[in-house]
Task: structure prediction
Amino acid sequence: MRNSGERFITDNDMICSEFFTDMCRGDRANVFVRNRKMPVNDLVFSMINRKGLTLKMELRGYMNISHPGTQISKPGYLKQRMKLNPEAIKFLYQFHNRNFYEDPEAELYTFNGYLVLAADGSNLNVPTTPETLEVFGTSSSKVKTKQAALGLACLYDALNRMIIDSTINRVKFNEMAMAEEQLSHVRETIGNHPFLITLDRGYPSIPAFMRMIDSDTKFVARLKKNDFNQEQRSMTSDDEDVEIAITNTRRHKHIGTYNEAILMSRDRFSIRLVKIWLDKDAGIYEILATNLPRETFPADSIEELYRLRWRIETAYETLKDRLQIENFTGTKPVLLLQDIYSTIYVSNVAEDIARDIEQEQEGHLKNDYKHRMAVNRSLCIGLLKSDLIYILLEEDPNVKEELMQQLYDEISENIVPVRPDRHYERNTNMRHAKYSNTHKRSF
Result:
């Protein structure tokens, strides 16, 4: 069995363990102690198997596979779900990730020896109720028509396509502070592998830059035009080290906050600025800030690293579009968190399996076709959603391994070409059909 399959079986064993049941209890020792129609492992399996149907159809489909002849009511199921600690589901995908990065046989994709991490946030629309509006807030600017939404912040391995960490916040949150919090314990997942972090233009922060420089955390961040405006305008080349003066104006808004101490610790610091030309004739460029050494990371490497950050945007697209993360089981915040974390788990398992297949068939996928080929992610997710439940519920290890192999074989048959630098003109005047003929769902 491939390594990704072994990790998935290990996850299965964890879900069925008493240790995991204790995690699901949280701080309530009196829950999940009786034998019921749907114990903890069934609750988790049903979340992994979730297809976005009505709850009645979801339960019918799951019980017909797992416990034929047995039925469970919607109120009974939701009552059990309300008792389950969402942090246990988050622990599950982090448990899978730790096994992934600790695997001595895993051939991790790196850039000059560094894992390339990306931090970004995205809003998720959630059912609008008085409770969700109070807990998470609204993304709507209009007073009368409020749409409840939450802020999801992810730390993503751009080359190995794994969501390493995630936090669920109110819809408006400090993205840089959340990224720093995630980086503070990233070693718990990736171990001692060297890493660097890529950040979009909403993240740059003088105190955050200073802390990352002090801790030797490598980063590449895109600046806005008004970030370090004077220093940008004083650049005499496309790649140079500049001194950032910490003026009273720059200190002012941080007085009385967590950032005050580091801003008062010195009057200036040095940072490397790289100018990336998008259209030299038109004078259009971007400025990237970094503390990576010029000797091993020349300017074109910095540009390539920042481009890799875009992969976290496609990861959010996968969560929202292919995995339907905003198609929730219910309206209660605890159910929303469970659904989000279980969706991230399925996303990571899918990428783990696809990555295993692509590495195993690398020569064939790279050399035997006109374009480089890759596993069709939509089909991979669809097949997982269709067949994963049978593997989870199978008790015979030999049959379980056989089912896993069948899944690998079918996913391997569904490959698509990777066409670099492909662009389409957007036609905003064309009306689109309700159901796309070229973008159908896989489950």
Observations:
- Residues 333-360 form the longest helix (28 residues).
